[in-house]
Design brief:
Blueprint lengths: L6 E6 L2 H10 L3 E4 L12 H10 L4 E4 L11 H16 L4 E3 L11 H11 L4 E3 L9 H11 L3 E4 L10 H11 L4 E4 L8 H8 L3 E4 L12 H15 L4
Helix pairs in contact: 1-8, 3-4, 4-5
């Protein structure tokens, strides 16, 4: 039987890609700039133009810089201002995560920003994969009030992390959504779906199309392939 309830999230860094993602069948957009460094907070102009151009939900990345996920007091203040801006720009959700220097989840700082972000849902991004103990990190993220976790199961790609992802999906139950991401493409997505039993999937298509070097039609076609896989019997 065809499963119509699997969700596809696509990360994008341009307005053309956002429009192409929606046309290709994406259900949600993760809006970033500079995906080559994992994504940072999009500008106000970018958020407003994208919100005006697409109808599907948009989750904005809140990340003041690349590199690690340990933030100074001034960076946390900046993130708070960026959350306020994203809310004013009509974003439907946010994506961020904060770690301690030992890469454990900074529960208190993350929780404070999640409370500030309400009523918008928050995805704890792949900072999660830096944690030394993913089972412990799962409980920590749940305690912050986050809605979902974007993760490759601590591996370079979701395909390599399928066994861990499957365990996380079972352990998470209905407490939080596990969103497998990292290297998902048309060649491996069906396998990731089959092995993880997750309900939502993330792709930036970076392993299929070089960042910033594909045409809108190429991007739309690549998204369409993923959407078709998720709407087909597996």
């Amino acid at each position: 039987m065809t499963d119509q309830h699997l969700l596809l999230e696509i990360s994008i860094e341009s307005l053309d890609s956002a429009i192409a993602a929606e046309r290709g069948g994406a259900h949600r957009i993760e809006l970033c700039e500079f995906l080559a460094v994992g994504g940072v907070t999009p500008s106000e102009r970018f958020m407003r133009k994208t919100r005006a151009a697409v109808k599907i939900p948009i989750f904005a990345m809140i990340r003041p810089r690349g590199d690690n996920f340990v933030y100074s007091a001034s960076e946390l203040t900046q993130m708070r201002a960026e959350i306020k801006l994203a809310k004013n720009c009509g974003m439907d959700g946010l994506v961020f995560g904060i770690l301690h220097r030992d890469n454990t989840v900074d529960i208190e700082q993350t929780r404070q920003l999640i409370e500030f972000a309400r009523p918008l849902p928050v995805t704890f991004h792949r900072a999660f994969d830096e944690a030394p103990d993913l089972c412990s990190a799962l409980d920590s993220v749940i305690s912050t009030g986050a809605t979902r976790i974007l993760t490759s199961g601590g591996k370079p790609t979701a395909l390599e992390g399928t066994s861990v992802l499957a365990d996380l999906v079972v352990t998470a139950r209905d407490r939080i959504i596990i969103l497998p991401g990292g290297g998902n493409n048309a060649a491996n997505l069906a396998e990731v779906v089959r092995l993880t039993h997750a309900r939502e999937f993330h792709s930036g298509l970076g392993t299929t199309l070089p960042y910033g070097q594909s045409s809108p039609s190429q991007f739309q076609s690549a998204v369409r392939e993923l959407a078709t896989i998720l709407s087909s019997p597996l």
